[in-house]
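Incident log, structure service

09:12 report received: a user says their structure output differs between two submissions of the same chain.
09:20 pulled the input from the user's history:
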Amino acid sequence: MNVDSTSSKGKKLVNRSATDDEKQTNVLPKGIQWNFHVTSDMQLDLVEAQIIAYVYHPNKDKEEPLVSSNGIIGYRSDFDTLAPGMIINDKIMTLICRRSTWIQNNYNRGAVWYLPPSFAEDVFSGMSTFKLIDRYFRNWMEPNSNLKYIYVPIKTETGHWFLMVISLELQIKYHLDSFCRMEDIECRSTTMSILSNSLNRMVRFPYYGTTFDGRSIDFLGWPLEQAKGIPNCGHSDNAAAWLIEWIDMGECFTSNIQGELLENNIRIRTATRLLLEMYNELKTTIEVEAKENWRLINS
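09:34 re-ran on a clean worker, output below:
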């Protein structure tokens, strides 16, 4: 799955993206204990290799800001959690949703809302509907009559990630989960019902009059279906990587999930996208620093 191709219909993205012919098998110089082990099958082009070498150099400042977008800052310590074997943190997940939202608002038709992980946390902390609207209306839930899907990432108390996708066209909620035991189903269904009810209350405010004009909205009452084709992994170790793959579907969502999970490739692809795309207000600065760092380590 590739957001650059599947969720950018209507306008062509101007983000830097290498063609297949430009892709090489760049690996990082030897002699340095990199914080991300790059393999040739990851197919990094030169700029991507430079960025990864800069971000995952062991001697660089862990608290250096590498991404800034609409007030959300991603530090090197956050990107360290994308390295193989690490637990991907909430900041990275928030940046993924922010990037996808930026693409929707700037290049697409506003067909998808990507709510950040904090949304579910705020709902379960008891935040009022008015405060939820104040926090999420402008940056995450922009009114748009083209809205087709709402993506809601959810993290359990044990750190397991799963996803609820609401289809407005089909009036169905979908549960995407890579590790769901029989004893988990009722609890997670209840969680999604509570979140659906909160969204129900939010979209009934006057702000969304044009978004849902003429459409019957009852997220809570719509049926919940399990997405097909997702393997039950028996653990949560790669649940975050699965979540990233599902978010990539954007408005090309399908409930029939196919494909193999290449986790480390997903991790490095996510890092390069978050760092090198136009939504990142620090993109140009980081590219310059990365190029100079590459020159020094190869001299």
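09:41 both user submissions now match this output. Likely a transient worker issue. Closing.
09:42 reviewer note: The beta strands are 65-69, 72-75, 112-114, 149-155, 161-167, 172-176, 224-226. The first strand starts at residue 65 and ends at 69.
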